[in-house]
Amino acid sequence: MADENQPTSPEEQALADEWAAALAEAGDASQDDIDALMGGAAPTPPRAPMEEFGSSPKPSATSGLEGPNLDVILDIPVSISMEVGSTEITIRNLLQLNQGSVVELDRLAGEPLDVLVNGTLIAHGEVVVVNEKFGIRLTDVISPSERIKKLR
User: What is the pTM assigned to this prediction?
Assistant: First the structure.
C-alpha cells in the first residue's frame, strides 16, 4: 500500500520537487513542510508574540474640548437633518393623505428649525435661499463641549 503523502504520478512528483526547491530557496524547507503541502494541509504559520494590553503607550494628546484627541474621527460621515416640526396622526389619517393635503406641525411660523446630527440636536436655524436652493442659517449653536457631552 502506497503512502498517501508520497506523489504517485510524474506530475505530482514534479510539483513536489518545485515546492521543495522554492522552500529551500526561502530557507524554511523541511520534510514536514513538504509533506504537509503534498498532503493538502498548509503549514502552520509562526505565531507573533502577544503584547500586554497595558504595555502600549496611551495617547496623551488632548484637544481643547476637555477630552481625548478627536482627530481620528473628524473624517467620519454623519447624517445631518433639519427638523421643521413634528406631529402625531393616526394611521387612518396617514392613509388618507394625498397631494395637496396639509399636515399641521407643532411649531409656529417663523420659529427656528432644529439642526440634528445623527438625531442629536446641535443647533437652531432659519431657512434661507442660496443659488435657488434652500439652505439654513445657523442662529444658535450648542457649544462643542455640550455636543460632546450629549454624545456620551
Answer: 0.44
